[in-house]
Amino acid sequence: MATAPRPRTTTRDPEELAHRLTAWLDTRLPGAKAVDIRVPASNGMSSETLLFDIEHPEPPLRACALRLAADPAAYTVFPVYDLPRQFRTMRLVADRTDLPVPEVRWLEEDPGPLGAPFFVMERVAGRVPPDVMPYTYEGNWLHAATDAERERLVAASVGLIARLHDQVPPTETEFLALPGEGDALGRHVASQRAYYEWVVDGLARSPLIESAFDRLTELWPTDPGETVLNWGDARIGNVVYDGFDPVAVLDWEMAAPAPREVDLGWTVYLHRFFQDLTTAFGQAGLPEFFRRDRVEARYAELTGHTPHDMDFYTLYAALRHAIVMLRIAYRQVHFGETAVPADPDTLILHHGSLRAMVQGSYWG
Fold first, then answer.
1. Catalytic residue among 95, 110, 201, 233
2. pLDDT tens digit string along 317-346?
3. CA-to-CA dists, residue 8 to 50, 263, 354, angstroms
4. What would the pLDDT profile of 118-127 be if each residue is shown by its tens digit?
5. How far is CA 350 from each of CA 272, 280, 295, 357, 363, rounded to the nearest angstrom?
6. Distance in angstroms (rounded) separating the CA atoms of residues 120 and 68
7. CA distance 78 to 82
8. β-bridge mates for residue 69, sequence order
9. pLDDT tens-digit profile of 140-199?
10. Residue 81 gets which letter from DSSP?
C-alpha cells in the first residue's frame, strides 16, 4: 500500500519537554527524576503523549504515560481539549466499573510547566492493534492470530463496552453532558454539527458530509432509548491487550452521555473503515472480524439490550469520522503537506463508503 507521509503531529521540541517535565515532577514528588523520556512513534494529533519512568525510592507509579493537551500552534484536531474532563472521566470509570482503566495520578491544569495542561497516568504493558499499517493488513500480531484468538478478542472488547454502559450510574455523568437542549442523542448530533462548522470555517464545505446530516434526519430513531456513558472512541486501537485480553482502556476524550448504539456504531464502523481500505488495496483483510451482526448479538447477550437503528448509528459513526478526517486534511493543507482538490469530498478517505451509506447501499 502506497501511503502519503504521516501528517505532522506536533510543533513542540521533545528535548525541551523532557527538561521541563523533570523540573515539574520534582514539585510533585521531591527527589524524583523523570528518566527514559520518549515520544512514541504513534503519537496522535488530538493530543500528545510522553512516556517516561520515575526514579525514586518509593514511586507511586514507576512506568508512566503523560497526556498533554494539543499545541494550539499545531492546527488542533478539536476546538477544545479538556484534560480535567478526561481525567475525571477515567477516575469515574475506574471507581464505578471493573474495566481496566489505567490509574490517573496527577492532573496539572496550569499550562506553565509544559505549555499546556496535562495529566500523568500509569503506563500498562501490552500490545495494541496497529492503525498504521492497519491491523487488517498482513504482517502484524492480530492479523497473524487464529480465528479463535481474534474471536476471543472481539468477545472481550464488546464486553468492555457492555460493562461500561451497564455499570456507570447515569446520574454521575452530568458533568459530561453536551450543551444544548433536548435528549442526549439530539445534543450529541448537534455537537457534531457545531464541530463541522468549526472545521469548515473559511474553507470549502463538504456536500457529502452535509448530505449525511440530512440522511440522519430521515433515519432518526423513533425512540433512542436510555442514555448511558459512552466511551466515545470505542475501538480496539484504544485498548492495550495482554495476549488477547484487555488490560487497559485508553482515550476517553470523546466520552459523553448518549444512547448505547453510539458506541456500538463507532466500534462496528471503525473496523469497517480499516477493512474497506485493505480490500481496496487488494488484500482480503479480516472480513469475519468484528462483523456487525456478531457484535450486536454479543452485546445483546451480555446486556439484555438488543441494538436497534444501527443503520442510523453506523452512518453517524462514518459521518463523525469524516469530519475528523476533513479537519486532518485541512491541517495538512495548513502545513503545506497537500493542496485542496477541486472536490473537497475527496479529502475524506472513506468518501465512497460514506456516500454508499447515505444512499442506503452500503450494508446491502
1. 233
2. 999 999 999 999 999 999 999 899 999 999
3. 16, 28, 26
4. 999 999 999 9
5. 10, 11, 22, 11, 15
6. 9
7. 10
8. 47
9. 999 999 999 999 999 999 999 999 999 999 999 999 999 999 999 999 999 999 999 999
10. -
The DSSP bridge partners found for residue 54 are 34
Identify the sign of the CA torsion 69, 71, 72, 77.
Answer: negative
- Whole-Å CA distances, 116 to 82, 90, 123, 175: 11, 19, 21, 22
Rounded to whole angstroms, the Cα distance separating 312 from 264 reads 11
Whole-number CA gyration radius for the chain: 20
3-state secondary structure at position 13: coil
For cell 446486556, name the residue: 303
And the C-alpha cell for 283?
488484500
Task: Judge contact between 1 and 281, C-beta under 8 A.
Answer: yes
**Cβ atoms < 10 Å from Cβ of 76:** 17
Residue range 161-175, pLDDT digits in tens: 999 999 999 999 999
Q: Three-state SS for 136?
A: coil
Using alpha carbons, select from 303, 302, 286, 300 the residue that is nearest to residue 150. Answer: 286
Cα atoms in the Cβ-side hemisphere of radius 13 Å centred on 90:
24
pLDDT tens digits, 38-62:
887 655 556 789 999 999 999 999 9
Instruction: Read off the amino acid at residue 295.
Output: V
pLDDT tens-digit profile of 246-257?
Answer: 999 999 999 999
The length of the chain is 364
**Can 214 be counted among the known catalytic residues?**
no
CB 87 within 8 A of CB 252: no
Mean predicted lDDT score pLDDT of the chain:
93
- Say whether 281 sits in a helix, a strand or coil: coil
User: Please, are residues 222 and 198 in contact by the beta-carbon 8 Å criterion?
Assistant: no
